Amino acid sequence: MVRVTRSGVVRVLKIALPLGALALVAALFFATGRDRGEGLGMSGVTFSATDGLRLTSPRFTGRTDAGAPFEVRAEWALPDGPDPSVIELGPVVGGISLDGHGEGHGDGEGAAGGRRLTLSADGGELRPKEERLSLSGGVTARTSDGYILTVTRAEADLAAGTMRAEGPVRGSGPAGTIEAQALEASRRDGAGHVRFSGGVRVRIDPQAARGEADR
After folding, report:
1. CA 74 to CA 149: how far, in whole Å?
2. What is the DSSP letter of 165?
3. Which of 27, 74, 129, 207 is the most buried (most CB within 10 A)?
4. Measured between alpha carbons, how far is 90 from 101 in angstroms, rounded to an integer?
5. Which of these, 182, 126, 176, 177, lies nearest to 153 by C-alpha position?
6. What phi and psi, each to the nearest 5 degrees, are found at residue 81?
7. What is the pTM of this model?
8. Which pairing describes strands 69-74 and 92-97: parallel, antiparallel, or unpaired?
């Protein structure tokens, strides 16, 4: 029987919790919602006559409930009509301040010393009337302090504040790595909930984890 010590649990949590928080922030990155639409702006858009309503280089900016600025850019966006039910997205990149301050640059550049998250995907699909977003083709969330989470595909319900990502799911941080086949994240009662499932594996760098646990 394997005996799990308190320090061992702390070390595992020091890896899983930051990655879970990273997943949750990434999942809700686009969740401006109806009540949060104030201040949401779009700029840098040109139209392609050959592709109908295709938008080139759209950029969306706004703030989260907590006041953190964000910016999302896509190479292109293709709505299915003037009042779109579906908007196809080309390669996407976005950035958000995790400290609730600084400028939300999509390239991850932010205020000096501030923690930032950048999110990128090869493509996606936004259903504005259903408030649903899917990202595919390799989705990567990365923080400025060394945490990285990658998934094959992510589906987010923006109205409900939930996300499911399917694998392989891989996360890494200063103290180790975590792998799983699926990840679910949700926001309920003002708190974030994250669940890894399907062959979950955690690998720890003992020396790095010891330093993290002592903080």
Report:
1. 20
2. E
3. 27
4. 28
5. 182
6. 170, 175
7. 0.71
8. antiparallel
Q: What is the mean pLDDT of the chain?
A: 71
Give the pLDDT confidence of 147-201 residue by residue, as tens digits: 888 889 988 887 777 888 887 988 888 878 888 999 888 877 766 777 888 998 8
pLDDT band at 60 (very low <50, low <70, confident <90, very high): confident
DSSP 8-class letter at 4: P
Q: Which helix (H) or strand (E) holds 137?
A: strand 132-143
Structure-token pair, residue 123: 């493509």
Distances (CA, A) of 125 to 11, 85, 144, 209: 37, 10, 27, 38
Cα distance between residue 131 and residue 155, in whole Å: 11
Q: Where are the domains of the chain?
A: 6-213
Instruction: Report strand pairing: 132-143 vs 87-89.
Output: unpaired
User: What CATH code is assigned to 6-213?
Assistant: 2.60.450.10
